Amino acid sequence: MKKYLYFFILLSCSFSKAQTPDEALRSAWFTQNGSARVVAIGGVMGSLGGDISAANINPAGIGLYKTKELVFNAGLLNNNNNFNYRDTLNNSEKNIFRLSGLGLVLGQGAKYTSSKLKSTAFAISFNQIANYQNNISFKGLNNYSSFSEQYLEELVGDKADTNAALKNYIFGSSLAFRTYLVDTLADNTGKFIGYKSLVPISTGVIQEYNAQTRGAYNELALAFAGNYSDKFYVGGTIAIPIISYKRELEYSEKDATNNTNNNFSSFTYKESFQSSGVGLGLKLGTIYKPAEFIRLGLAFHTPQIISFRDKIRASMTTNTEAYAGTISETSDALNSNNPGERNYTLVTPYRVIASASYVFREVENTKKQRAFLSADIEFVNYKGARFLKTDDGGNLVKDYYETLNNTTKNTYKGNFNFKLGGEIKFDPWMFRAGVAYYGSPYKAEVINADRLVLSGGIGYRHHGMFIDLAYAHNIVNDAQFPYRLNDKANTFAVQSGNVQNIMLTLGFKL
Questions:
Q1: 176 Cβ neighbours under 8 A, 6+ residues apart
Q2: Are 358 and 294 in contact (CB under 8 A)?
Q3: What gap in Å lies between CA 111 and CA 497, rounded to an integer?
Q4: All domains of the chain in start order, with CATH
Q5: Contact status, residue 341 vs residue 310, Cβ threshold 8 Å
Q6: Confidence band (pLDDT; 50, 70, 90) for 362?
Q7: pTM of the predicted structure, to 2 decimals
Q8: Secondary structure of residue 95 in the 3-state scheme
Q9: Residue of 273, 221, 198 lying closest to 15 (CA atoms)
Q10: 93 pLDDT exceeds 50?
């Protein structure tokens, strides 16, 4: 019994090591999504209100409603990716149609005219916060490091004997060991002293990374807000994140020389990974009107606590020429045809949003031309993301998550996002424009990562029906890591490109 328990602990630990800080960033660094109106004005909604997207940004904005409203959102995304991996240029593209959200707002005026509580509103919405559908593909020559070195770090770090190397790391190191990508290292007397990789790093290998990702980060929001004296608005949202992510990965390394006698030709690692999570968070906000034309907003998003379940299958084929020939191994063969499963909890970073708006309007006749200009400043504490173990796994799993959290803290930092947007109205038409800048979440200055969004759109309102159309051009700078090592600087692909987002919103006053 102890033998099987020990095996389970090591198996769990091996799978957990598939997790990286990237998983924390996936749930934290994204451009603002929502209704077409919000997309068109750069994602600004910290102090404006009067839009269903306020439930996801500053719920106090729901308090501006005094009527009922039903909203539907749909859109089209086009991802254009350019990668520079060790001075080799690559590109990929992905088109996505999405039904990105719907919502219902129930606004109600005060029952008593003498009450300071002028109105209340409740909203329920389902909104796509981020879309994960993408193609990531790059390759290049590397004479500095190898994917195989992460297996050496794992085996040496765990002081694993050959028995453990054969069967306790079935989604990684055991595949490498069984296919002779990694083999034992002996001293002059033949005594086992560790492990070695057969990859000839010094003469270089051609590395190729291809991943297809799918899924989305959706959020179910239940918001309630109150309007006091038409000057002070306060609201709260119970946020339920619902996340689905799938990745089909194929990674390979090939000998860059024509040498057929150096005991290495190539290896290919394939991985099928899926992750699903549901969680809970709270969003609180206020909006204050110190004057008729000015609105000031402040919102706080608590860390969301998301419970994840991950599943993984992996395989490896290695050709070591005369050393051991071509050998293939799969995790299914080592795990009774079952995927590896891991349950854990992710605590996302908190957010703070400060906002100000200036509203131009004709008080006596609202049909006349009017406009607004609004700005948001958002702080996100990316380095505050934390992984917590859910499965039992003893000190091995506990120690791993402590290391992962330290790596996350050392990889990321807190940073600011800036958004500016405006609208001008010639009843019943509205014309909108916006710009947003999302600062880098990475602590290392060598990683040039940010996002600049330029947006615009039009809207039409007539007889209780409205339709909005928006276009946002997202200029992306990021980094993609094919693997991560602890004992040397990590190599990465420099990502540049753009995401084109066309959003349509259809709404009805009820």
A1: 148, 151, 182, 316, 318
A2: yes
A3: 54
A4: 22-143+209-309+342-509 (2.40.160.60)
A5: yes
A6: low
A7: 0.90
A8: strand
A9: 273
A10: yes
Per residue in 398-433, pLDDT (tens digit) is 888 888 899 999 999 999 999 999 999 988 999 999
- With vertex at residue 17, the alpha carbon angle to CA 13 and CA 18, rounded to the nearest 5 degrees, is 125
Taking Cα atoms as reference points, which of 424, 448, 450 lies closest to residue 437? Answer: 450
Q: How confident is the model over 463-483, as a mean pLDDT?
A: 95
pLDDT of residue 13: 46
Which DSSP string corresponds to 106-166?
EEEE-SSTT-SEEEEEEEEEEEEEEE--EEEEEEEEESS--TTHHHHHHHHHTT--HHHHH
b (16+ CB within 10 A) / e for 302-321? ebbebebebbbbbbbbbbbb
Alpha carbon distance 272, 70 (integer Å): 39
Nearest-angstrom CA–CA distance, 21 and 32 = 22
Do 35 and 44 form a contact (C-beta atoms < 8 A)?
A: no
282 vs 295: CA distance, rounded Å: 23
Q: DSSP character for 191?
A: -
Residues 262 and 320 sit within 8 Å (Cβ to Cβ):
no
Residue keyed to tokens 């299914």: 332
Considering only CA atoms, which of 397, 378, 464 is closest in space to residue 43?
A: 378
CB-based contacts of 390: which residues, under 8 Å, 6+ apart?
A: 307, 343, 344, 345
Cα(346)–Cα(399) distance, integer angstroms: 16
Assess whether pLDDT exceeds 50 at residue 8.
Answer: no
- CB count, 10 Å around CB of 328? 14
Identify any residues that bridge with 78 across adjacent strands, giving them in sequence order. Answer: 95, 500
Strand ranges inside 302-428, DSSP E: 305-319, 326-330, 340-347, 351-360, 370-381, 386-389, 414-426
Query: What tens digit of pLDDT does each residue of 167-222 get?
Result: 999 999 999 999 999 999 998 888 999 999 999 999 999 999 999 999 999 999 99
pLDDT band of 7, cuts 50, 70, 90: very low
For residue 79 the two structure tokens come to 């991802």
